[in-house]
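Exercise 7b. Backbone tokens:
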């Protein structure tokens, strides 16, 4: 449904995108992740025809963005960061205005507006002035606009920025509903959001795609699905070296503390390493304050991937 091949874009001397390539299959919800300035919004603006690329090819719903811009826009619903609404207009009035701009058939206009209002949960505020609505409701109005023409592709750029936890939860449920029969790209900084909503993940860093897979596969590739955390009082380098000697340990990272240091062990084959840690600490004559097993989150994998591309954080040492 979406094909991006060797996409490049520069702004003067700054190379925002450097030969970016990825695909999104029909029916997938792709979480598009990256730190600030990584190239997420630039990619989305090119996908929707708002910006031209400098090189490469982009196809959306079978249409070339550079050569068939109008067909791409008809097939795409776009919710940019900071929804551009008219605050002085009423919700229904605004959607009718947008329906005319989109060239919707008169015979279906009322039906499509009603469907967009209902599916996004804003039918009850149809007569309200947009400027009087909460930020969460304004986001819903923007999404209703994006859904008006029943697009095959939905592109959402940071749709939950500024929303409170309850509004985020509601928007997450809403996205699951509207994404059932559409291909969706979702850009967000809330990684837990991606794990709950998205079927696939792409991570962009410094204008390049550095990971692309399902969330669980990325977690498995970058640190496994489970790890062991221990707090030990002892010589940091000596403890870290002792923990890393076991062949079942794939990697040990250590964060220095005042007395107790925090060690994170990632297993080579999914084993529970708590007994190993206990024996190493006992044999070394050190003190153990905490020992627990925890699941690796997408956020952990994200930090690991970006950290590997940018250099590790100071104060963290690794073995293996």
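Sequence design result:
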């Amino acid at each position: 449904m979406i094909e991006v091949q060797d996409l490049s874009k520069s702004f003067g001397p700054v190379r925002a995108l450097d030969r970016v390539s990825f695909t999104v299959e029909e029916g997938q919800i792709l979480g598009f992740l990256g730190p600030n300035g990584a190239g997420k919004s630039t990619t989305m603006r090119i996908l929707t025809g708002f910006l031209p690329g400098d090189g490469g090819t982009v196809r959306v719903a079978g249409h070339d963005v550079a050569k068939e811009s109008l067909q791409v826009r008809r097939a795409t619903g776009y919710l940019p960061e900071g929804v551009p609404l008219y605050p002085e207009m009423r919700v229904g009035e605004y959607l009718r205005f947008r329906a005319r701009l989109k060239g919707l058939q008169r015979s279906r206009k009322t039906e499509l507006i009603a469907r967009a209002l209902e599916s996004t949960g804003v039918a009850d505020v149809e007569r309200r002035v947009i400027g009087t609505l909460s930020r969460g409701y304004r986001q819903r109005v923007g999404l209703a606009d994006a859904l008006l023409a029943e697009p095959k592709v939905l592109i959402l750029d940071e749709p939950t920025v500024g929303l409170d936890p309850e509004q985020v939860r509601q928007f997450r449920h809403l996205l699951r509903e509207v994404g059932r029969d559409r291909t969706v790209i979702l850009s967000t900084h809330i990684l837990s959001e991606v794990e709950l909503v998205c079927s696939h993940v792409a991570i962009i860093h410094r204008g390049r795609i550095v990971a692309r897979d399902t969330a669980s596969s990325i977690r498995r590739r970058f640190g496994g699905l489970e790890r062991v955390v221990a707090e030990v009082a002892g010589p940091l380098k000596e403890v870290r070296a002792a923990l890393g000697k076991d062949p079942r340990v794939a990697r040990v990272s250590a964060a220095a503390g005042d007395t107790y240091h925090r060690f994170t062990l990632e297993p080579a084959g999914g084993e529970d390493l708590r007994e190993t840690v206990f024996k190493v600490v006992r044999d070394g004559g050190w003190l153990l304050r905490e020992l627990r097993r925890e699941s690796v989150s997408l956020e952990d994998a994200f930090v690991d991937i970006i950290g590997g591309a940018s250099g590790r954080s100071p104060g963290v040492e690794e073995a293996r």
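Instructor comment: The longest strand covers residues 14-24. The chain has two domains: 2-213, 225-319.
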